[in-house]
Amino acid sequence: MLLTVERVALLRHVQLFSHTPGRVLAGIAESLEEAAFEQGQVLMEAGALEDWLFVVVEGEVDVVRADRFIRMGPGTIVGEMQVLDAMPRSATVTAATPVRAFRLRKAAFDEALRTRPEIAVGVIKELTRRLRETHEPPAG
């Protein structure tokens, strides 16, 4: 089990939390649950109703929807949409390699959003980046 300071160091590499002060990250880090997945193991299933997201710390995950496939690695977050809008999961996420991740429950995430505007700004920036990546035509 990682110490809070080690968790904070790992969260610093997550785009969503990159501009969040260390003392705030320490509060979030205390709410994280460590999780490990073997290659091929499902982290979340499309259509499921769950109350958490995952921060990928090590390894890679495959995010699969009917219309697209994305491979994501360390420092990325999966499952944030369902945590934000309480709708069923829109994708299945599977460990492409052995994965170590942090699970963050909705209640802790909501509390962070309510009390720390920089986290809300980080969420907006990350979701905007993802929208641009998936909806802008290729340059050229």
Describe this structure in words.
This protein has helices at 4-11, 22-31, 80-85, 106-115, 117-135; strands at 33-37, 42-44, 52-58, 61-65, 68-72, 77-78, 92-95, 99-105. It is an alpha+beta fold. The chain has a single domain (4-131), classed as Sandwich (Jelly Rolls). It has a four-stranded antiparallel sheet with strand order 1-8-3-6. Strands 2-7-4-5 form a four-stranded antiparallel sheet, with no helix packed on it. A hairpin with a 2-residue loop joins β4 and β5 (68-72). α1 packs across α2 (22-31).
List the helices and strands and how they pair.
Blueprint lengths: L3 H8 L10 H10 L1 E5 L4 E3 L7 E7 L2 E5 L2 E5 L4 E2 L1 H6 L6 E4 L3 E7 H10 L1 H19 L5
Antiparallel strand pairs: 1-8, 2-7, 3-6, 3-8, 4-5, 4-7
Helix pairs in contact: 1-2, 4-5
- Which oligomeric form is depicted? single chain
Q: Tell me the fraction of residues in β-strands, as a range.
A: 25-35%
What would the average pLDDT be, to the nearest integer? 87
CATH architecture: Sandwich
- End-to-end separation in angstroms reads 47 Å
- CATH fold category name: Jelly Rolls
* Total domain units: 1
Q: What's the CATH first level? A: Mainly Beta
Order of helices and strands: HHEEEEEEHEEHH
Number of strands: 8
